Amino acid sequence: MKKIALISLGCAKNQVDSEAILGLFKKPSFEITNDLNEADAIIINTCGFILSAKIENINTILDALKYYKKTIVVGCLVERYLDELKKEIPEVDLWIPFKDEYQKLPGLISNLFKDEERLPIFDLNERINNDKAITYLKIAEGCDKFCAYCAIPYIRGRFYSYPLSELVNYAKKVALKGIKELVLIAQDPTSYGKDFKDNKVNLVSLLKELARIEGIESIKTLYMYPEGISDELINFIKTNEKCSHYFDIPLQHINNKILKSMNRRDDKKTILSLIDKIRKEIPDAILRTTLIVGYPGETKREFEELKKFVQEIKFNHLGVFTYSPEEGTRAYKLPHQVRESTKNKRKKEIMEIQSRISYELNKEIIGRIFKGIIIDKKENEYLISCDYNAPDDVDGKVILLKNKEHNIGDIVKVKVSKAFVYDLLVEEI
Fold first, then answer.
1. How many Cβ atoms sit within 10 Å of the Cβ of residue 273?
2. Helix axes 231-239, 203-211, angle to 10 degrees
3. What is the pTM of this model?
4. Spatial distance between the Cα atoms of 249 and 265, rounded to a whole number of angstroms
5. Which fold would CATH assign to domain 369-428?
């Protein structure tokens, strides 16, 4: 039996792939371990999205090589820089692009140990059980948007949806294992179904099927592209008791010139209209967004417009990236690149504004009642998932102090009793 360790880097979509990879390595031929010292082979699932991620990935690979184990590197970084990586880090035993080779991983690793055994092919839905109450459900792959700053379409390929029946069957399986919340993810989840011949299949029809599954208590969708948030989708989230009133809408910017240069489909007017519509239809909606500062051509004027937008809209949760020039993207060769020091200063300014907004909004919801799911427990407290937060460690935590025993997955009714800048303290009612 060979022991396999896996290091997962990057976003939640990568985490889904990592869990699927681990699901391939079945006993009695393999055993999963979290201890790199005792592993026979270390798999590193990489991200190649932005410069800081690439630096982190390279350092992680170099650190893993110090254990003198069989080292296998997979994922986006390999897909994008395979030839350069092979040349620069020849100590790695296997470089595996994600598109075609994942299903062969057990056999390829067996070959490294001159083992003849072969295991079943890769299956996205055969993922290792992580004994938690929440699981990510990747509903689509790739992207057709071709935003000017983004390399994902070149790494992950064109957009395609996973079959609705397979997603529903998988959700039924995890519900039987005790999963209470599904978190739908994709690069562009609001385009789900657009590549099917049946034009009646879309994100709403998928949500309807998932909401019918016994045992599933909550459904969230992350990374919703604004132009795909239809009236039908808003109404379904509003009226279905299992759909969380949580809208994660990465907007990137608000200035029309910058949005056009980014090749975004929305403009300031449609963005403001969408936010206004969501808040009118679902007054208790939690809004999250992601912004990019320091994009080529972003002057002080455009940045001030972005700051004003953040101050006026008051998102519950907001994250900021500094623009990272990515080879092969349209923005890579644009003139008027912004200095790194200016990017970092602008990021700091936005986050300082957002911290004040977050604290103000959190204080406003003291007394609000949520239905929550126990997702983790520590010595003196439980962590709760509810409409307020997503499980990707971007939002604040919802903390319930222990006054009686609960198990992971228990459904609780809680009231917000105290607010912090990002976290909430709740009490059970």
1. 13
2. 10
3. 0.82
4. 13
5. OB fold (Dihydrolipoamide Acetyltransferase, E2P) (2.40.50)
